[in-house]
Amino acid sequence: MSSAALVTLRGVSVAYGGHVVLDAVDLTVERGRIVTVVGPNGAGKSTLLKVALGLILPDAGMVERPAACIGYVPQRLQVERILPLSVRRFLAMGVGQGGMNSVLEAGLERVGAGHVLGRQVADLSGGELQRVLLARALLRKPDLLVLDEPVGGVDMAGQAELYDLIAGVARDEGVGVLMVSHDLHVVMAATDEVVCLNRHVCCAGHPETVSRHPEYLALFGPRVAGSLAIYTHAHDHGHSADGSILPLDGGHRHGPECRHG
Amino acid sequence: MDEFLIRALAAGLGLAAVAGPLGCFVVWRRMAYFGDALAHSALLGIVAGLLLGIVPLLGVIAVCVAVALILAAQGKDGSIASDSLLGILAHGALALGLVLLSTLDKVRLDLMGWLFGDILAVDWPDVGLVWAGGLAVLALLARHWRCLVAIAVDEDLARVDGHDVRRGRLVLMLMVALSVAAAIKVVGVMLVTAMLVIPAAAARGAARTPEQMALGAALIGGLAVAGGLAISWQWDTPSGPSIVTVAAALFGVSRIMSASCR
After folding, report:
1. Which residues of B touch A (CB under 8 A)?
2. Three-state SS at B197
3. What is the arithmetic mean of pLDDT over A109-131?
4. What CATH number does residue B141 fall under?
5. I need a labelling partner for A107 at 20 to 30 A (CA). Which of A100, B44, B115, B145 fits?
């Protein structure tokens, strides 16, 4: 399966001024798979994504990134109001020369934001901007999507639609997805692998397994974990790049600092 | 029209053509304080030029470029806030310049001229330097335009899109350093950031794209130079401050116009 890897991190450590943000993190995203990183604030989730993107160089460990084209949705994008930039132009900048109007418009329709094409980026609401960012990432026809809380600020109905869209892109187009999400319900429903991060990888594996993991329970508390019990459902299969059903391989694996079982 | 006025106009328009588009990046990327810091440290360049017996403008260019390189190299270490570092560099260089100035036997320096500009004293070689440097900067700007606009939107996105962000940032800092050095000749150390910031801000109202704003800033800068020189000629006011006053007035007009369009 290593030939299908789009990005691989091995033993990645990052420290800012002596403060360890990431400690010996391993991570692999393969074609057609959705890997979701969960964890509390300050767990190093965004940093992990930036290391995977090559925006931050790790202090130790190695990053391999065979993915040719990456679509990135940052956690927040602040476009100064003094910069005149239409949504059309912003999308075209990501796509390159092939950014015909009809293509851009279709890309926006896909994320439910067809009406904002002529607007200025600085005038968009938070939810609209997130949709535009996702459209921009998808328009690049990426091998790998890196999404840092992609639906932040999007209304509830829209969130479900966008997560469905992301899952569909992974399933139908074989795009690998590396995502940070706080929405644990969604994580449990539509993710192939959950990485539970608190500077080091606490536990990783299939959502169903991870949600019963002691470290996961310790991290999110029994209340959150308990409320999720209604939503969890057993996955007895996975999907391959062409959408066909595959048996599940592997439960969860232990992080280096796990002290249980 | 007297020849010195034609020379002043030629130099001023050449500067405006460059400072307008570059000023857009200064306001987009919140680099106004960077321009100020360069201008303050330029005094060191002037004095160093005098001490070494070279043209002061070359000393200014050398110091501005050096400060830009130090700031670019400092990068994102983050151990000291970049505005603090700017302040330390700017005022350290300014103070050193003043100390060195006091060691000169007889002061051959027209301090007021440098502080507030002396565009009426430019000679043809100065004009040639401004235009040659200006064309070089514009060519560089055009070459890196897509990258620079992408960086102005967001550096991380630009990097993922495949732009060389480090090089773009360095090129931009060097271009701003060169234009600050040229602008000192026209409006002086105290007002140099105004030539970058005010025309760009004034051009925002009517612009729908980055390119429109850059072009508009160049035109408004040119208008300010022509208007300021006319006022200076008519009422014998100092030329540099007159130019900046006209630019500020144009900014006010653009604000009122864009507010009434809304």
Report:
1. 27-28, 30, 78-79, 146, 149-150, 152-154, 156-157, 159-161, 201, 204, 207-210, 212-213
2. helix
3. 87
4. 1.10.3470.10
5. B145
Total domains in chain B come to 1
Return the CATH superfamily for domain A2-69+143-254: P-loop containing nucleotide triphosphate hydrolases (3.40.50.300)
Task: Retrieve residue B14's tokens.
Answer: 């050449």
Structural domain boundaries enclosing B35: 3-189
- Tell whether ipTM is more than 0.90: no
Beta-bridge mates of residue A60? A13
Report the half-sphere exposure of A62 (CA within 13 A, side-chain side): 2
Q: A205: which residues sit within 8 A by CB, 6+ positions away?
A: A193, A194, A213, A250, A251, A252, A253
Q: Give the one of B79, B153, B161 whose C-beta lies nearest to A83's C-beta.
A: B153
Check residues A230 and B218 and name the one with the higher pLDDT.
B218
Residue B208 lies inside a defined structural domain of this protein: no
- Residue B218 Cα distances to B2, B59, B147, angstroms: 25, 27, 20
pLDDT tens figures, B150-207: 999 998 999 998 899 989 988 998 898 888 888 887 788 878 889 999 999 999 988 8
Q: Which residue has 């500020």 as its token pair?
A: B248
d(CA A235, CA A192): 9
* Nearest-CA distance A228 → chain B (Å): 34
Question: Hey, are the CB atoms on B157 and A82 less than 8 Å from each other?
Answer: no
Query: To which residue do tokens 């007889």 refer?
Result: B106
A55 touches chain B (CB under 8 A): yes
Determine which of A82, A89, A120 to mutate to test the interface with B (most B C-beta atoms within 10 Å): A82
Closest CA to B47 of B3, B4, B102: B102
Residue A249 binned pLDDT confidence (cut-offs 50, 70, 90): very low
Task: Give the Cα separation of B22 and B141 in Å (integer).
Answer: 8
What value, to the nearest 5°, has the Cα angle with vertex A72 and ends A70 and A77?
155
How are strands ordered across the β-sheet holding A60-64? A19-30, A5-16, A60-64
Which member of B150, B204, B213 has the closest CB to residue A93? B150
Query: Is B254 part of any domain?
Result: no
